[in-house]
């Protein structure tokens, strides 16, 4: 991912130097596991533990001579070891024992960063929902004024959506946090399964229960789909807030820095650029889903078709999701809300948004449903045509109804408020 959408803590996990440090850790752990079984001399283990991880430049130099990244890494790593010790490195292992076990460790750490950002977003939505629980605003369906609700209720729907994404991400983290050190075609022919267990326990990983030589790629597909779903939930928030920032609406405004400039030509502009950015990032995440699903089906016990895809898609998707969730949390925590504009929108249709409670009143009075509907609709049409207050039009039609007040729509609002407490 380009630097513009990359946060430092995520970037640090995906550099080549970081990768080779993790590979080195896996090799050291595997050697320790072998030594515990008496298969590696103590002197060799001491040397291997002390050998530093090779730099990305050193591995690149070796790869120019070998055209194989794992062999290049091993050559660079072993270059500083005594020959007698170097021969014990990678004992009984195949390339993807190293690559996939290290990848599982990195994916778990990267997913933890996304989970932290998503959890912060959930908390921000929850707290702002509580703050604005009684801030009356208009609910809209099909883009048209429907009935009064509250801004807190609106934010609560987003908070629960993000909460579901957090739970999906936790499940996906468990799915990808696995390793395999089982040798060629996964049969443990040249390595004891106890070595695998030792390494994976040390890294906080589960073990692929029936390895084929690689970790199953449906695990990675599950993760990217969870990231894309989180991205779609963030997009839902962003689209709503973009709509509410339109000039004629202006019920909220995203935070601005003192340096903010909205247009190169129009100095007055205050564009919803953060929300638009969040929307665009969601499109990137959805675009990665197809690629990881294509990676699930490999030839026989393995092929290498997945490798170029996941070298791009996995760090890209995690980096984008981390940036997007972090930016969304910043937005929610600092956005400005205009309650007076929200109330003005409720009143903008001269009371038409109360038509459903008027209809309910007539039905309770015993008026036949079709007749009641037509009477209320006729009064509503008169208000639309004349601009006359809806209550006045109802009175002129001889209809006796209750008060036209937003609180009539919020009788059971406390039920949802109590549910929201579960997220705090």
From TrEMBL:
UniProt family annotation: Belongs to the lyase 1 family. Adenylosuccinate lyase subfamily.
Enzyme class: lyase
PROSITE patterns given in the database record: FUMARATE_LYASES (PS00163)
Membrane-crossing segments per the record: none
One Pfam family named in its UniProt record: Lyase_1
Protein's name in the database: Adenylosuccinate lyase
UniProt-listed Enzyme Commission number(s): 4.3.2.2
Source organism: Micromonospora rosaria
Catalytic activity from the UniProt record: (2S)-2-[5-amino-1-(5-phospho-beta-D-ribosyl)imidazole-4-carboxamido]succinate = 5-amino-1-(5-phospho-beta-D-ribosyl)imidazole-4-carboxamide + fumarate; N(6)-(1,2-dicarboxyethyl)-AMP = fumarate + AMP
Biological process annotations from GO: 'de novo' AMP biosynthetic process; 'de novo' IMP biosynthetic process
Highest taxon above the source species: Bacteria
Keywords in alphabetical order: Lyase, Purine biosynthesis
Domain Adenylosuccinate lyase C-terminal: 350-421
Pathway as given in its UniProt record: Purine metabolism; AMP biosynthesis via de novo pathway; AMP from IMP: step 2/2; Purine metabolism; IMP biosynthesis via de novo pathway; 5-amino-1-(5-phospho-D-ribosyl)imidazole-4-carboxamide from 5-amino-1-(5-phospho-D-ribosyl)imidazole-4-carboxylate: step 2/2
GO molecular function: (S)-2-(5-amino-1-(5-phospho-D-ribosyl)imidazole-4-carboxamido) succinate lyase (fumarate-forming) activity; N6-(1,2-dicarboxyethyl)AMP AMP-lyase (fumarate-forming) activity
InterPro entries per the UniProt record, alphabetical: AdenyloSucc_lyase_C, Fumarase/histidase_N, Fumarate_lyase_CS, Fumarate_lyase_fam, Fumarate_lyase_N, L-Aspartase-like, Pur_lyase
GO cellular component assignments: cytosol
PANTHER family: ADENYLOSUCCINATE LYASE
SUPFAM superfamilies xrefs: L-aspartase-like
């Amino acid at each position: 991912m380009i630097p513009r959408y990359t946060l430092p803590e995520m970037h640090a996990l995906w550099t080549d130097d970081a990768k080779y440090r993790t590979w080195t850790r896996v090799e050291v752990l595997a050697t320790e596991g072998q030594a515990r079984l008496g298969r590696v001399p103590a002197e060799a283990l001491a040397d291997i533990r002390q050998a530093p991880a090779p730099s990305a430049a050193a591995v690149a130099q070796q790869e120019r001579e070998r055209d194989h990244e794992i062999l290049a890494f091993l050559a660079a790593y072993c270059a500083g070891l005594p020959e007698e010790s170097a021969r014990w490195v990678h004992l009984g292992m195949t390339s993807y024992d190293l690559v996939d076990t290290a990848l599982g460790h990195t994916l778990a750490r990267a997913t933890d960063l996304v989970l932290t950002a998503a959890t912060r977003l959930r908390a921000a939505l929850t707290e702002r929902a509580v703050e604005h629980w009684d801030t009356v605003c208009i609910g809209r369906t099909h883009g048209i004024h429907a009935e009064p609700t509250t801004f807190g209720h609106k934010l609560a729907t987003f908070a629960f959506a993000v909460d579901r994404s957090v739970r999906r991400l936790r499940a996906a983290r468990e799915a990808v946090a696995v390793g395999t050190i089982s040798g060629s075609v996964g049969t443990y022919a040249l390595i004891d399964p106890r070595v695998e267990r030792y390494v994976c326990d040390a890294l906080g990983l589960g073990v692929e229960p029936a390895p084929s030589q690689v970790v199953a790629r449906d695990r990675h597909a599950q993760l990217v789909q969870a990231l894309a779903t989180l991205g779609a939930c963030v997009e839902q928030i962003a689209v709503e807030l973009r709509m509410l920032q339109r000039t004629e609406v202006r019920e909220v405004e995203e935070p601005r820095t003192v340096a903010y400039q909205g247009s190169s030509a129009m100095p007055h502009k205050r564009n919803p650029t953060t929300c638009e950015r969040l929307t665009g990032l969601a499109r990137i995440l959805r675009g990665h889903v197809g690629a990881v699903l294509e990676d699930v089906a490999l030839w026989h016990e393995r092929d290498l078709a997945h490798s170029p895809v996941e070298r791009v898609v996995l760090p890209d998707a995690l980096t984008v999701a981390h940036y997007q969730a972090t930016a969304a949390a910043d937005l929610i925590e600092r956005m400005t809300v205009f309650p007076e504009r929200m109330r003005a929108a409720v009143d903008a249709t001269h009371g038409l948004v109360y038509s459903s409670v008027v209809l309910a009143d007539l039905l309770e009075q015993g008026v036949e449903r079709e007749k009641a509907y037509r009477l209320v609709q006729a009064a509503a049409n008169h208000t639309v045509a004349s601009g006359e207050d809806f209550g006045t039009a109802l009175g002129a039609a001889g209809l006796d109804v209750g008060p036209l007040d937003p609180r009539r729509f919020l009788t059971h609002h406390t039920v949802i408020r109590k549910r929201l407490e579960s997220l705090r």
